[in-house]
Write a structure and sequence with these properties.
With about 350 residues, the protein is of the alpha+beta class. The protein is built from 11 helices and 18 strands. The protein folds into 3 domains: about 120 residues, no CATH class; about 130 residues, Sandwich (Jelly Rolls); about 80 residues, Phage tail protein beta-alpha-beta fold (3-Layer(bab) Sandwich).
């Protein structure tokens, strides 16, 4: 199936799922379903309510203007801009909102001899956002703020490889013949089927892996200087500078509760607390006194406002703060901290 036909098919399915198809379009859709048994399987998967909901949720995290611009840049080399432009609001809008999951199908179908490199599906979240994604193998990934997750178009066909920058919680479907591998900078996490959290923000010195259930294998992305099997209830921290790995027992909920809307701080250094609050609330925290970063903070944050959080810090840690509002939605609110 060529690129244009794939988009037309996505358009038909999207309109059907949103109840906006015409009689002629319904006939076209039925003809497509009868062409190949794989078409019917794909259609059955897409029309499941849970998949539609997750696709819409994933779609809502995208910057649609930027996505369209990048998309047009990719197809421009094939001289299809004029043909595709008329689908901008019809095909692409219905196509994504109605069944965003078919994007993976289109990516698989549009590989041509012109493309020698693998194609990737990428999901990104800004600070103040998080998302939930269902992978092609039915694995579920919760993506925290300021995170980018990528997987190639052959995911669960020839491999299960994921690239991660930021933080994500994985609930992986078991497949003993095809382990899943998460690559994050200097560390690889290899699993068969399990639940675990990976935090690998580029501004953090440590990459951490917290295992909730099952088992995971840790190894260095470059070379095989260590291989370590992690057990449930353990947290591994890999120091990207010293390249050393440390493992300890932890309460997993302290590190995975963010996916449920909670931030749990137990004897946590204030410098780490500030990083998490900046990502969660999309704010810019400026510390005027470095002694503040050495303080320890204990709290469970649910739906508290920024002001409520810093009021609590003021009471429990004897700090002062000033919130500077922003009139520009592109510029985060600033919080100045002093002792």
């Amino acid at each position: 199936m060529n690129l244009l036909k794939s988009i037309k098919t996505g358009h038909l399915i999207g309109k059907y799922l949103s109840g906006k198809e015409s009689k002629e379009e319904l006939v076209q859709l039925k003809n497509w379903l009868n062409e190949d048994s794989s078409h019917q399987r794909l259609f059955n998967t897409l029309k499941e309510e849970k998949n539609i909901a997750s696709s819409i949720e994933e779609f809502e995290t995208y910057n649609k203007k930027v996505a369209w611009k990048r998309y047009m840049e990719r197809v421009d080399a094939l001289s299809l801009r004029k043909i595709l432009f008329r689908w901008k609001f019809a095909a692409v809008f219905f196509f994504l909102i109605g069944c965003a999951g078919i994007l993976a199908y289109i990516n698989e179908e549009r590989v041509t001899p012109l493309a020698s490199n693998e194609n990737y599906t990428t999901v990104s979240t800004n600070n103040g956002q998080n998302s939930k994604v269902i992978l092609p193998d039915s694995s579920v990934v919760w993506i925290n703020s300021g995170t980018t997750l990528s997987y190639n178009t052959n995911f669960s066909v020839h491999n299960r490889t994921i690239k991660l920058t930021g933080q994500a919680f994985f609930q992986i479907a078991r497949n003993e013949k095809m382990p899943l591998t998460v690559t994050c900078n200097e560390l690889k996490v290899k699993v068969l089927g399990t639940k675990f959290d990976v935090s690998a923000y580029p501004e953090d010195r440590n990459i951490s892996v917290v295992l909730e259930s099952g088992s995971v294998e840790l190894l260095q992305a470059k070379g095989q200087s260590f291989i370590h099997m992690l057990n449930p209830g353990e947290k591994a921290e890999f120091d990207t500078e010293s390249r050393e790995l440390s493992v300890r027992k932890v309460d997993c909920s302290n590190y995975t509760s963010w996916k449920d809307g909670l931030l749990i701080f137990k004897n946590e250094p204030m410098v780490d607390v500030f990083k998490k609050l900046e990502r969660r609330y999309n704010i810019d925290i400026e510390v005027k006194n470095n002694k503040v970063n050495q303080l320890i903070f204990n709290a469970t944050i649910v739906n508290e406002s920024v002001e409520e959080i810093f009021d609590l810090m003021k009471f429990s840690c004897a700090i002062n703060y000033k919130i500077i509002p922003s009139q520009n939605p592109e510029v985060p609110v600033k919080v100045i901290i002093s002792k």
